[in-house]
Write a structure and sequence with these properties.
By secondary structure, the protein is of the alpha/beta class. 38% of the residues lie in helices and 26% in strands. β1 (2-10) and β2 (17-24) form a beta hairpin. It is globular and about 45 Å long.
Length: 236
């Protein structure tokens, strides 16, 4: 599905990411772990076409999409849920969702996708006429994910979905992510909350200072002393 080789990228002329290589297999859930500032968001932005790629390759499926613009990535099914949600607050829940399907010209297809996200997140159906700004934090995160689903993603990029959420609310989000994965989408989730990601990800990569320090199966890394010492002592 997604193959990244020796990627270098950053926000300015300075590379934040240094020779990153990773793979997200078809229909897999892959975790991207690391402390604040490790480069998780920079990597997702590079994949999405938001940050300039200055070296290496990004391949998706059978295509080399290195340096592709954001709209090209979206057309190929790579959809990002950004950190902080970035919803259109004054607009209604339904309007935010409809914007997620802006590339789809068939009204019947858009309507079908809308019903699908309403079935996945029933609270959004109940609140579809309400302004997004007045949703709770958990509901806003559900809306951000649902908006991404309106674009029918093949690969869903999640950037810190636990941000500002209570643990039980994040557990609910995780279950929805599992369901989305079972429906066929691959998942790359960037998180500081290592323990919960390790419990449901097939494979995880650990970023430190813009480079991959180590990686492995989620179940194996949960027992790894390096993870225990660096991350699990603070995250429950």
């Amino acid at each position: 599905m997604l193959v990244i080789e020796s990627l270098r990228s950053g926000y300015t002329a300075i590379d934040v990411l240094k020779d990153i290589s990773l793979t997200v297999p078809d229909r897999a859930i892959v975790g991207l772990l690391g402390a604040n500032g490790a480069g998780k968001t920079a990597l997702l932005r590079a994949i999405s076409g938001l940050n300039t790629v200055r070296g290496g390759r990004i391949c998706f499926g059978d295509r080399d999409l290195t340096g592709a613009t954001t709209d090209v990535m979206v057309r190929h099914g790579v959809i990002q849920v950004p950190q902080g949600r970035l919803l259109f607050g004054p607009m209604s829940v339904r309007e935010n969702l409809e914007l997620g399907a802006y590339l789809e010209r068939d009204a019947a297809v858009t309507a079908k996708r809308l019903q699908h996200v309403f079935s996945l997140f029933p609270i959004l159906a109940e609140r579809q006429t309400q302004a997004a700004a007045y949703l709770s934090g958990g509901e806003q995160q559900m809306l951000a994910i649902a908006r991404a689903l309106m674009a029918s993603p093949r690969l869903l990029l999640l950037d810190e979905p636990s941000l500002g959420l209570a643990p039980k609310t994040f557990d609910t989000i995780i279950e929805k992510v599992r369901e989305i994965n079972r429906e066929g989408a691959s998942i790359l989730i960037a998180e500081q909350n290592a323990r919960k990601v390790l419990r449901f990800a097939d494979h995880c990569y650990v970023l430190e200072n813009g480079a991959i320090a180590f990686d492995g199966a989620g179940a194996e890394l949960e027992r790894d002393a390096r993870i225990e010492k660096t991350y699990l002592g603070a995250n429950v």
